[in-house]
Amino acid sequence: MTFLYAFLVGGLICVIGQLLMDLTNLTPAHVMTLLVVFGAVLDGFGLYEPLIKLAGAGATIPITSFGNALVHGAMAEAEQHGLVGIITGIFEVTSAGVSAAIVFSFFAALLFRPKG
């Protein structure tokens, strides 16, 4: 059942994003931003963690989980360090993923040449 829930939740998030691009005049950048904010708002209300427990990777892989990670990290650090923790918490939780994306992109750029 875990795989089914992951497929359904992840697919639903992707369908929402695709419908926003197809049925509105929003650009992919706007849709991505909306999905990040949606994940952040859900985490702010405490609704994203139960979604992760239900769907696993179906909730942690889509871009909404980035918003979840930002808010989750900021709230956790704010409890320990106050206002300074809000800023440091955002960077602490997301730095590994952003750093990995930069490093892997660099190596991909070294190995492959664009066709255009």
From TrEMBL:
The keyword Membrane applies. The chain crosses the membrane at residues 27-47, 54-71, 83-112. It comes from the Bacteria. Keywords: Membrane, Transmembrane, Transmembrane helix. Pfam families: SpoVAC_SpoVAEB. NCBIfam families: spore_V_AE. This is Stage V sporulation protein AE. It comes from Tumebacillus algifaecis. The gene is spoVAE.
